[in-house]
Automatic annotation (TrEMBL):
InterPro entries noted in UniProt: DUF484, GAF-like_dom_sf
Lineage: Bacteria, Pseudomonadati, Pseudomonadota, Gammaproteobacteria, Thiotrichales
Protein name: DUF484 domain-containing protein
Length: 232
């Protein structure tokens, strides 16, 4: 009596099995490095290339991304360092000012020279009865333009972008028509003491996407210095 022997078909490996095996044995290709040169991966219109060449290409792209990120971090660090130096210079100049007029004049000079503001304007509240408003920087709190900007003053946060012509003329007088973008910085020290406006001849200098953290710090520093003189 003859006995027939049936052959067992070879086990079929699907992708998930291969992936599971390689995941469980991450050093497999290291131990069998000869496979790196014969395994091929698709490169689209460029045809096929060895897995080793593909890995080298991926590593190069990754290194380029890392280098780009590093350059961005270095650039940001340098920019922040410059900002800190400028703020330190402004702080020292404010400490040297022995009067409000000198302080405001110092602010205008430093903001123009160190922070590249084309125009600098202060509008400080002055509501003491029986006294005239001393100089061009003061305004009554019930002035129509200040009332129109009340929401900005109450919100405390700086705002950047274009500004209506009427407000530009109020803030920058004869230079209002030349200004393309502004940064409006509320001045707060326990209470609202007014507004600092920076004007630029460039439309993109102060746009709505500009970060306002630095401008907030600038406003707090200047408001604190001004408040010290207003209390005397």
């Amino acid at each position: 009596m003859s006995t027939s022997v049936q052959s067992t078909p070879a086990a079929t490996l699907d992708e998930s099995t291969v992936i599971e095996f390689l995941s469980a044995n991450p050093d497999f290709l290291i131990n069998h490095s000869e496979l790196l040169e014969v395994l091929e991966v698709s490169q689209g219109v460029k045809g096929a290339t060895s897995l080793l060449e593909r890995q080298v290409s991926v590593l190069r792209d990754k290194n380029k991304r890392i280098e780009s990120q590093l350059e961005g971090l270095i650039s940001a660090a340098r920019s922040n360092e410059q900002i800190m130096k400028r703020l330190q210079h402004l702080t020292l100049e404010l400490l040297r000012a022995d009067s409000l007029d000198m302080l405001l004049s110092t602010c205008q000079d430093v903001l123009r020279n160190d922070f590249n503001a084309d125009f600098v304007s202060f509008r400080l509240f002055h509501d003491k009865p029986g006294t005239d408003m001393p100089g061009l920087h003061f305004v009554r709190s019930n002035h129509a333009m200040m009332i129109a900007m009340r929401s900005l003053l109450d919100d405390i946060q700086p705002v950047c972008g274009p500004c209506p012509e009427e407000q530009l003329n109020f803030l920058f007088r004869e230079n209002g028509s030349r200004i393309q973008s502004v940064a409006l910085i509320p001045l707060q020290c326990n209470h609202s003491i007014g507004l600092l406006a920076l004007g630029s001849l460039e439309a993109e200098r102060f746009h709505s996407g500009v970060g306002t953290v630095f401008l907030s710090h600038l406003g707090e520093l200047i408001a604190t210095a001004i408040a010290q003189h207003l209390e005397h």
